[in-house]
């Protein structure tokens, strides 16, 4: 079993596949930020209820987000850093298979 596949699923639940776990991991920040649709939220929460390894990962991400919010709240990055980040973001090119 992979690190993200449960050794045993909840009673009556189907075992999760690596692909399902990878999908959850890719969407975890949208769930934490409240930016996913109600349908996606329901699907992700169901997965978390049935997949202990993903639930542990979600908990870590949730704690990380809380730590960032605590340590970085109110502070703004220096203007020079913000400008360099803007330039890097503009220069970044994403190539996707179509």
From TrEMBL:
<dbReference type="Pfam" id="PF13490">
    <property type="entry name" value="zf-HC2"/>
</dbReference>
<protein>
    <submittedName>
        <fullName>Anti-sigma factor</fullName>
    </submittedName>
</protein>
<feature type="domain" description="Putative zinc-finger">
    <location>
        <begin position="21"/>
        <end position="54"/>
    </location>
</feature>
<dbReference type="InterPro" id="IPR024020">
    <property type="entry name" value="Anit_sigma_mycothiol_RsrA"/>
</dbReference>
<dbReference type="InterPro" id="IPR027383">
    <property type="entry name" value="Znf_put"/>
</dbReference>
